[in-house]
Amino acid sequence: MDQLYEFLSGYTLQRDIGARYEYSNLGGGLLGHVLSLRGGMDYEALVRTRITGPLEMNDTAIGLSDDAKKRLAVGHGARLKPVPNWDFRALAGAAPCDPRRTTC
Predict the structure, then answer these.
(1) Of 60, 35, 64, nearest in space to 48 by CA
(2) Contact call for residues 21 and 82 (beta carbons, < 8 A)
(3) How far apart are alpha carbons 29 and 69 in whole angstroms?
(4) What phi and psi, each to the nearest 5 degrees, are found at residue 82?
(5) Per DSSP, what are the bridge partners of residue 81?
(6) What is the phi/psi pair of residue 38, to 5°?
(7) Cα–Cα dist 47/43, whole Å
(8) How far is CA 57 from CA 11, 38, 82, in A?
(9) Which of 94, 100, 77 is nearest to 27 (CA)?
C-alpha cells in the first residue's frame, strides 16, 4: 500500500475533474481499498460478508480455489489469443487476487 499512497500523493491530474470520464482500474481498486478500510476487514471478507454471502453467490469469490480455477473461462486479448488472469496485488477491487496470499 505504501507504493499506492506514494503514487497518489505525487500524482497531478491531467485534466479538470469531471471534464471527461473513463474507466480506471486504479479508481476501481482504490474504491475497493477505501471500502475495506471503512468496513474494517480485507476486501475479500467485505465482499463475502456484505454481498456474496447474503445473496448466496457461493461460486463468486475474489481469490479462486484450485477447483474454481479449473472452471474459469479463459480470457483472450485483442489478437484472440489466451491471456493470463490479472492479479493487482494492491488493488483487490480492480481484479481477482491470488488465493495463496493472505491478503489481497
Answers:
(1) 60
(2) no
(3) 22
(4) -55, 145
(5) none
(6) -65, -40
(7) 6
(8) 38, 23, 27
(9) 94
Question: Count H helices, E strands: the chain?
Answer: 4, 2
3-state secondary structure of 27: helix
Single-letter amino acid, residue 89: R
Q: Which of 59, 58, 31, 62 is nearest to 47 (CA)?
A: 62
β partners of residue 97:
63
Among 50, 66, 51, 53, CA closest to 99 = 66
Q: State residue 104's pLDDT score.
A: 45
93 close to 37: Cβ distance less than 8 angstroms: no
Bridge partners, residue 76, by sequence: 82
Mind listing the pLDDT tens digit for each residue in 19-76?
Answer: 998 888 888 888 988 999 999 998 889 999 999 999 999 888 887 788 888 888 889 9
In the chain, where the domains are located: 2-83
